[in-house]
Amino acid sequence: MADPKERIQYLRDEIRRHEYQYYVLDHPLITDAEFDALMAELLALENAHPELVSIDSPTQRVGGAILDKFKTIAHRFPLLSLDNAFSFPDLAQFDQRVQNMVHQADYITELKIDGVSVLVVYENGVFLHAATRGNGLTGEDVSANIRTIKSIPLTLKTALPRLEVRGEVYMPKSEFARLNVEKEEKGERTFANPRNAAAGSLRQLNPQITASRSLSAYFYDVVYVEGATLNTQQEMLALMLEQGLPVNPEFRLCRNIAEVFEHCEQFTERRHELPYEIDGMVVKLNSLAGREELGQTAKSPRWAVAYKFPPEEKETRVLDIVVNVGRTGIIAPTAVLEPVSLAGTTVSRASLHNFDLVAEKDIRCGDLVLVHKAGDIIPEIIRSFPEKRCGTEFIVRPPENCPACESKVVRPRGEVAYRCENINCPARLKESLIFFASREAMDIEGMGPAIIEQLVERGLVQKLEDIYQLDQEQLQGLERMGPKSAAKLLDAIDKSRQQPLFRLLTALGIRHVGPKNAKILSRHYGHMDQYYHVTVEQLVQIPEIGPRIAESITGFFAEPRNRATVEKLKAAGLNITAAKTAPGPLPLTGKSFVLTGALPSLSRSEATQMIEELGGRVSSGVSKKTDYVVVGDDPGSKYDKALQLGITLLDEASLIALIEAERSLYTSN
Ligand code: IVH
Known about the structure:
Strand content: 15-25%
Structural class: alpha+beta
Largest sheet: 7 strands, antiparallel
Bound molecules: 2-(butylsulfanyl)adenosine
Mean pLDDT: 91
CATH topology of the largest domain: D-amino Acid Aminotransferase, Chain A, domain 1
CATH class of the largest domain: Alpha Beta
CATH superfamily of the largest domain: DNA ligase/mRNA capping enzyme
Oligomer: single chain
Number of domains: 5
């Protein structure tokens, strides 16, 4: 086999090249699966040869520990902000001031990306750290989070001794919309705009959260460079591009202010077509020598200005406030508006998100309101005009019963949303069924969304329990379903009757009760009937179960419609008891572990407990008999000894994966 060192180098280069193609150029050359295969091979090699892991490896984007708080970083050079121009006459004035000092005033106009300003520093071509702009003099060290942004390279194309670049981290409009839907479904507060969403995602102490939000970045300024000379903004942009940094392609060299106007005008229209939000254009003197001459004030340079687009807001009237039940049971108010054209489309509805917000903004049926589009796409009411009321307007309050099924509406603790808790509510049914049959729940093979869609549309399934009454003939009647596949599906449904209790508990879709909590619960309460009587006080005795989870469980079983469904499922012959623990020794019996260094999230005693629960032993010294050494930050000499003896090394993530795998094999028997 090839030298692992060489192979690792080859894989890293390939992965970097493809990341650049995909995330920066938006032009992938290979399929996702091919990319994943490269990454998997690299990960495996690095696991087998931990001494070859390096900080700039593509595998190291997420690896950072959860922080207590951010460190501060003092910027070497102050990061200035810009003066604003709100009209073309303002821009002409700026041009005049520039022309008074420099003769040949060429400008570069760029899009003003609406995100978070960051500084990224590379040393010898390798990512060193990244900071927010902060107050311009010091910012927060957000290196671990910036590393997770795939369009930001961890290595430059050439090993410049030092490069400090400034750019904007932003959240694409589509990701902003997705994230807000997700937040709304969880009953959490939504982000007001993509900038807040980007800032919120970047200021996460846990880099895993940042990594899960598709952030991206564009760079627009070289703050400092060693190893290259630059004379113009154009050259700056070119240098950054050559080094593999993402640079927004829509910049333009303008020979005079008329061309600047033209470019600004063009994007006042086109801004809505862009996949990210811009709030204006930045006009910069191209010549760096000219910039020297013009200088700067305490806050901003005299050689650049931000042209801000006029806000896109319109007044209209609220014709009605209607209440919808979402696919996850959330009951949300929506304003029906007198149609207005706004940011390129006609708007006639605006989500009001939740009833707290309606009260906070004092929005009433019949009100005159100001609307805009959050993130340039989501219509939203900014404010009402109480002073313009005529007396016929009225307040719309949350309903006491679900508009779709009449169940009592609840408002879970800590959430802004009201919910329908009835799993069989027609508004939620498809979603409930998809989850019920899914791999993490009852795992009914062949019962995917397309089949469920048909079953519900045809009225064959009106409640979860109806799944277990389906027959061959009914299934055969579905589209693209022959006798053979119908029989197979029927068999899969039948087999699911034997699933252990934790799967059924999961499948009921009780909020906060995923497979992990369901397993914990079923170890303590191993019979379904116990859940009818268990109290919040009893449930919170279980160390992993907090009041929010406990209330969700008792709330679920308090709803008579849910109890009726559970009874029907029992009658259909489903297993309602926890699997007996498998006979024989525990899965890690005889295995010895040694811990060294601080693990990112588990304490020493938590890790020990996890290992011991499955029969493993944790000892203090490494010897030939040690099976695994778990390595954290700043490992001691045990790490060197483990390397010498060639003992299998685990980091926290792989320890957890090992434990989970063993545990699930063990308990699902
Ligand atoms: S130039 C001295 N260019 O807008 C250089 N800024 O107040 C100053 N921004 O804080 C920045 N896109 O966060 C520049 N193409 C661009 C930009 C841009 C967005 C942000 C940046 C800055 C704010 C201006």
